[in-house]
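Section handout, structural biology tutorial.
Before the tutorial, make sure you can parse a SMILES string by hand: atoms, branches in parentheses, ring closures as digits. In the record below the ligand is coenzyme A, and the chain has 129 residues. In the tutorial you will relate the predicted structure tokens back to the input. Do not try to memorize them.
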Amino acid sequence: MMRPEGLPAESKIVLGAFDDGQLVAVVDLLRGFPNEHTAFIGLLEVHSHHQGRGYGGSTYGLVQRYVESTWPEVRTMRLAVVDTNAQVATGFWQRQGFQPTGEVRPYRYDKLESSARLYEKQLPEQSRS
Ligand SMILES: CC(C)(COP(=O)(O)OP(=O)(O)OC[C@H]1O[C@@H](n2cnc3c(N)ncnc32)[C@H](O)[C@@H]1OP(=O)(O)O)[C@@H](O)C(=O)NCCC(=O)NCCS
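Predicted structure of the complex:
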């Protein structure tokens, strides 16, 4: 349910990736955040029993295909990696073609205080025709 202030409810979707009817990954996705040409991945999580077997990469591929085919105004995929999760997530996102923007934001969730580093990937031009 959580989303940035001012973003309408219909701009947030949660997608599931299934293999043979079994849920293996979830994705939290925002349309038009922080601007109309950007989709923000709030979370991509593979079930702990299924990590390291290619599901994360193939789930991201499906997410990108979904954005390219249903949100034609989006040119950039964006996400934040929290420093406490950097060892797990940074290599994965770079493997999917994301690069650091250089922006660093304070991150607070419950009792955790850390920093989040922003990453972006430009979508290919032909996917928006
Ligand atoms: C991060 C996460 C999504 C990766 O999913 P996964 O199914 O384990 O990853 P895959 O097996 O699909 O790996 C895809 C590619 O990324 C690479 N990769 C994965 N984790 C990596 C890491 N920590 N460092 C370097 N490369 C990594 C893999 O080697 C693989 O490369 P390949 O395409 O050459 O084979 C998964 O571990 C996860 O859900 N972690 C907990 C939640 C989380 O941290 N999500 C990300 C922040 S939103």
